Amino acid sequence: MTxxxxxxxKHYCKICRCWCSGNKRNIQVHETSERHIxxxxxxxxxxxxxxxxxxxxxxxxxxxxxxxxQAAVFAHAFDPFEGTGREAAA
Length: 90
What we know:
Distance between the termini: 94 Å
Order of helices and strands: EEHHH
Largest sheet: 2 strands, antiparallel
Oligomer: single chain
Shape: rod-shaped
Helix content: 55-70%
Strand content: 5-15%
Number of strands: 2
């Protein structure tokens, strides 16, 4: 009887975005390769930079909200029409 061709399992490395054969030895060789280690380090540095940028952006937004609130309190404190019934006339 004729033997059917069977595809060999492949392993996809998400860090390097490449395929390698699916046996354990080749996966281990790939994961200890210089290319994989450099890509892992690069990905970690990018994640740390992204997190610090997000924290910085969050702090800037928080400061801006505080500034706007302080300006609103200041404007409300010195409103010349407060207590004159302006709200009732509207």
